[in-house]
Amino acid sequence: MTESRTDTIAAISTAPGRGGIAVVRVSGPDAWKVAEKVTGRRIADEDAGRFRHVGMAGVDEGLMLVFKAPRSYTGEDSVELQGHGGTVAPRRVLEACLAAGARLAGRGEFTLRAFLNGRLDLSEAEAVIDLVDARTERAATDAFARLEGALSRPFERLYAEAIDLSSRLEHALDVSEDELPDDFRSDIDSRIAALAREVDRMAATAHEGRLLREGALVVLAGAPNAGKSSLMNALLETDRTIVDSVAGTTRDAIEEGLDIAGWPVRLMDTAGLRETEDPVEAEGVNRARALVAKADIVVALDCDIPGALRIHAKCDLDGINGLDDRNGLEGIHVSAKTGEGLQALRQAIASRLEALAARGDEVAEADVTVRQKGFLLGASAALARAVGAIDCVAAANEVRTAAECLGKIVGKTYSDDLLEALFSRFCVGK
Ligand SMILES: Nc1nc2c(ncn2[C@@H]2O[C@H](COP(=O)(O)OP(=O)(O)OP(=O)(O)O)[C@@H](O)[C@H]2O)c(=O)[nH]1
Ligand SMILES: [Mg+2]
Fold first, then answer.
1. What pLDDT does 362 receive?
2. Which of 4, 136, 186, 341 has the most other CB atoms within 10 Å of its CB?
3. Is-contact 375 408, C-beta < 8 A?
4. Which ligand is nearest to the Cα of residue 222, counting in written order?
5. Domain 9-120 class, CATH top level
């Protein structure tokens, strides 16, 4: 972040590795000059928005797409050089751009410039990284809605209201009390309280946001040999974890990502719950208990765990070898061996996730991030203090604090630290 924000930057914007094409992006005041040197072609205003077939510094050939400020992703003059993919060709094109005067871009620096040039606000910039990171349809839909301003609009409204309240209170400080209407304070207080309710309502949407971005933690738990590892493998459709007829096979908790009805899920296989003398297994059991406590959803195999989704495993064995008396066969009947009940289990997990994410009567268009929630809570606390404040001076101070918190969400006010924390999550080239 200490780098200049007005020089010309370049980076490979496509994923590394084998691929059909790769895109080198150049942005900044000298972007066109850099591209002219690399391609040996003159760029004119009429080239903006057009592809041209070009050679690239004797190392590659491909298409050049020219953007003229402010009509580009960054809001600056930009060029995309689309050459052959792979490891070497794009790197050589990038090196040619650096030799022609560009600087290697830092993480998220193209998007940072887009923010600094007013092309998007901070909540939209966060949506960009979440869209790139999205692992499921649902997560991508949420991120795209935010990129399109689904959160920016309500945040702008809250910010504008806080600024208006703050300026009214500050105006009240400049005039004598009898110039103010009788109900001035009670009016302002009820508007502050209404704003606080709005802020709290938005903060509450962070929960679904977390489920979508980090994935829901779904923990398989039960006695040794209950069939947890087999069920994990069946849900993943791979042989991810070791299965054995010896009780106490799994010790470490094993995590794997999975898409269940569009929800990103972190599925965990755990050690069978029992008292044991073996210190390694005992540690595994402790970890399993901790995960059960932390889980968004616990899938309990033939055992009772409060709040858990109970299932009856190995149902293919029912009626064979006198096994049909196992714990009353409660819950969804599932067999890792035959696949019976797996779909019903997925559906049950999905509907629990829906319920976890639902917030009363109203479904928000998109959900706030953890960063945004922190500022919303800061604003909420300041507004609560403002309502009870002894005089207009104190109230004005608190409302100003709330406005600053809200301003940081969209980037009305920002510090280098804030930008650094946000954009360091990006990859180079975005
Ligand atoms: N018939 C049948 N056998 C199963 C099924 N699921 C698991 N088994 C068998 O039950 C035994 C234990 O399975 P695991 O998946 O290792 O059980 P676990 O709960 O992970 O056991 P620990 O890791 O020791 O706690 C193995 O011999 C599996 O082959 C099933 O759906 N049907
Ligand atoms: Mg196991």
1. 42
2. 341
3. yes
4. 1
5. alpha beta
